[in-house]
Amino acid sequence: MKLNKTYLLLTILLFTIETLIAIYLKTGFIRHTFGDFLCVILLYCFFKTFIKGHHFKIAVIVLAIAFTVEFLQLTNFLELFNLHNNQLAKLILGSTFQISDLVAYSLGIISVIILEYKVYKLWIT
């Protein structure tokens, strides 16, 4: 398996930014909305580090994962897995459903698709 170094570096950069947001920002737009926007981009870059596949398919898979986790927040899934007192699980998986999160995830994936398309066009021309 060959790692894509560009996506690996982007994954590390985005993970660092997400970690800093989680540590230093407890409320506000950047924490609750921009963090979700970046989260799907981080997941996309992580998958692209290991998987050489069509960017649109991977983007749709990432969006499906994000939506699934968000909709699970409508249930007591953290309690079901005895993670309701685990702060890291709450931070990563979330504990409250927000429609604004779905919008942020969608905008993040749309941004990825647009950027990938533009980069792809640059490489072919």
UniProtKB/TrEMBL annotation:
UniProt keyword Nucleotidyltransferase present: no
Record Pfam families: DUF2809
Transmembrane segments: 7-25, 31-51, 58-82, 102-120
Keywords: Membrane, Transmembrane, Transmembrane helix
Presence of the UniProt keyword Membrane in the record: yes
Protein name stated in the entry: DUF2809 domain-containing protein
Species assigned in the record: Algibacter pectinivorans
Lineage: Bacteria, Pseudomonadati, Bacteroidota, Flavobacteriia, Flavobacteriales
